[in-house]
Amino acid sequence: MKSSSLLVAREVTKVFGGHRAVDGVSFVLERGCIGGLIGPNGAGKTTLFNCLAGHLAPTSGSIELDGVPIAGAPPSRVFAAGLARTFQIPRPFPQMTVLENVMLAPPHQLGERFWANWLQPRAVAAQERRTQEAARHWLDFVGLSALAQQPASVLSGGQRKLLELARVMVAEPRLVLLDEPGAGVNPALLDQIVDKVAALNRQGTTFLVIEHNMDLVMSLCRPVMVMAQGRLLVQGEPDTVLRDPRVVEAYLGDAA
Ligand SMILES: Nc1ncnc2c1ncn2[C@@H]1O[C@H](COP(=O)(O)OP(=O)(O)OP(=O)(O)O)[C@@H](O)[C@H]1O
Ligand SMILES: [Mg+2]
């Protein structure tokens, strides 16, 4: 039987020239949840995501996805293992169409292997068709179908967040890390993103979401983890966590 823990981090630390951006962070993310990760600016949230997704090798500590060690593995390996992430500032390729941007991500693309084009041209073509179908499906899911053939440069900030969601979903990940899905998004689009994430979660995708918008966190995330100055302060139910004096102080300290 599969363990209920999907992601296990133990004592994850990332040091930048003496500064402990992530400082001994340990947590367990249960399969099927939408976990929240909050904390003041500079707390180390994105750096922790970078360590989890392979964009940075932690200085020390271990990370397991479904029992498989992934700390220090390159992003492509972590991605192939089922963990996909979106970026705090999405940077789609502006000249490529919206559809082409979504088609960039799937794992094990045969066509990218040099010899495959000669040895298995039909398999490559069939896979490209499947990828395109999947990309169209996810564009439709996030409501961007009408813009599929437009260059990505026409998208608003909120639409870029939706494009990112479609892009990661093409790979059918087990775990999706969202870095501030609500930042720069107007309220109507924000509701859409919340609905999409909740729907995907009901279908079995686990999420971990960094977010400053507390309404979004309260309505979507359970449990909530709070980071400040590289450390994990508390975790639990959103309303309990937000009333915790240590959390209040971390935010007030940031505002001072
Ligand atoms: N590549 C890097 N090199 C050096 N320092 C870095 C690097 N990336 C992040 N830092 C530092 O690490 C700390 C944590 O940054 P991080 O971006 O993880 O914070 P965050 O919690 O995501 O903040 P925000 O809410 O503003 O996005 C900050 O002090 C930042 O300046
Ligand atoms: Mg950040």
List keywords for this structure.
binds adenosine-5'-triphosphate; binds magnesium ion; Rossmann fold; six-stranded mixed β-sheet; 10 helices; globular; alpha/beta; four-stranded antiparallel β-sheet
What does this structure look like?
It is a single chain. The protein is an alpha/beta fold and 256 residues long. It has one domain (5-255): 3-Layer(aba) Sandwich (Rossmann fold), CATH 3.40.50. Helices cover 39% and strands 24% of the residues. The protein is built from 10 helices and 10 strands. The protein has helices at 45-53, 75-80, 98-103, 116-119, 121-141, 157-169, 187-202, 214-220, 238-243, 245-255; strands at 5-16, 19-30, 34-38, 60-65, 68-69, 83-85, 175-179, 206-210, 224-228, 231-236. The strands form 2 sheets. Strands 6-7-8-3-9-10 form a 6-stranded mixed beta sheet, with helices on both faces. The longest helix is centred in the middle third of the chain and has 21 residues, at 121-141. The relative contact order is 0.18. The chain binds adenosine-5'-triphosphate (ATP) and magnesium ion. Adenosine-5'-triphosphate is lined by residues 16, 21, 39, 41-47, 88.
